[in-house]
Structure formats: C-alpha cells, structure tokens
Amino acid sequence: MSAISIPVAAAPAIATEHLTRRFGDLTAVQDVNLRVAPGQFFGFLGPNGAGKSTTIKMLTGLLAPSSGRMQILGSDFTENPVEVKRQIGVVPEGMALFGRLTGSEYLNFVGRMYGLDRDTAAKRSAELLEFMQLTDQPKSLVTDYSHGMQKKLALAAAVIHGPKVLFLDEPFEGVDAVASNTLKAMLQSMIARGATIFLTSHVLEIVERLCSHVAIIHRGQLVAQGSLEELRAGVAAQSATALLASGAAPGDQPASGEKLTLEQIFLRIVGGTRRPDQELSWLG
User: For the whole model, what pTM was predicted?
Assistant: First the structure.
C-alpha cells in the first residue's frame, strides 16, 4: 500500500526532515518526515521492530541520527541540545529510574537537575506523589515499587519541570486500570494546557481514545500521517480504488457509512491480515 500523507499546519512542535538511523548494514529508520502541531496528542504506531523506539530515542537525544534533521519547538536539536532538553519530558521504554532512592528523593533530584530551586522541587514532588497516589509508603525505595507504581513515578519525573513536549514510550504497558486512569487524567490535563504529547503504544484502543493525530511507521519508513478521520478517508479511498481495479462492481464496495477502527486502519496500512492457511495444526 502506498503511503498516505496528510499536510499538517505550519510551525510544528516536532518536525523531522529525512531522519535516518543506521546500525551497520541495518537501516532502522529511513527518511522519516514527521510534523506534529503544538497542542496535539500524537500517536506513533508500528509493528514490533518497525523503528518506533529508535525514532523516539533520536527525538529525545538518546541516540544520534545517522542523517537528517530534527526540530523541537523550532530549535534544531543538534545545534541546541541542552535548550531542547530543558523543554521536553521523556518516559523511556525502560524507565531508567534510580532504584536506591525513595520516590520523594528521586523526584526532588530530577527537579533539581532541571534547574528548579529547592523549595519548588520539594513542593512539586509532594504534589505529584499525592496525585499519583504514591504517598502510602514514603520510605519505600523505588526498586521495591510495583511496575505500575514505577510507571507513575516515571511520568511524574517527566513532567515535574512543566515540559512543553512530552514523549511517552509504552506508558501503559503492564499498568492496571486504576493506574492507567490516573495517567490518562494527567495527560489530558497537559493537553488542555497546551502541551504536546508524542505517544507510542501497542494498545490501539488507548491510542484511538486519546490521540487526535497518528503516524504509522513500517519497516523503518513512515507510511501514514494525519488525523484519525483523514486516515480513515485515505484507507477507504484506497480500498475502493483497489476493489474497482480488481473488477468489483460498485455495489461490492464497503458502505460509505463504515467507520473503521484504528486497529482496522493500522492492519490495512501495514498489511497485517492473516492468511486462512496460517493455522497451528495441533490447536485445531
């Protein structure tokens, strides 16, 4: 399927031009041109190994691109890395928390590293711990937190300095319904205040519920980008064209009122349908 490209408004919060990353002979990300407008809740999707985490690592300065350019809030990342990092928050795939600190100690440390004064760091740390419902065991070390508690602490650390752009790599993975609801409430509050959120997740139902715009990467290349409604229209148009090319009668085309889910859009774009003969013989 050919790429679906939807124009995005000027002055993006996140912009890349021909962003590429190679690991030896392997090209993990190739010529990615992303545009994310300020204030968008943006979903970045793709199959396993498609290049999602590699792209986020480049956008957050954890990995240098092999070629191409990146701009965050109008600043070139390569030329102004410190300025850019002061304005972004990151919840990386592995969270990378300091396990031998308490939650309060960790948040205070992160706040101070972002340049907050001691009183502001302490005040925001206390507010975040209360909001995330992490105050029950104040002397517990981070290493003793459950996975869901660590996810909430990682998000608290990512927003303590009030970032304008927030990058989230699988923030809901392994998180229970209560913790997930808390995380969603915070993210929606940030969007309401004008922040931009860049989210990767395999849970397409969550992405569809939260995100207004989506991009899909497949085998290292960007194959779709736009609002959910624009992607629905693009997939529907391509499906109709393919049916007509195959000789199908107009009446055989999908009904015009059909509303594809994000999962259906994703599978049609990346070609993830399973053949009827793909069965496990011993499970029949």
Answer: 0.86
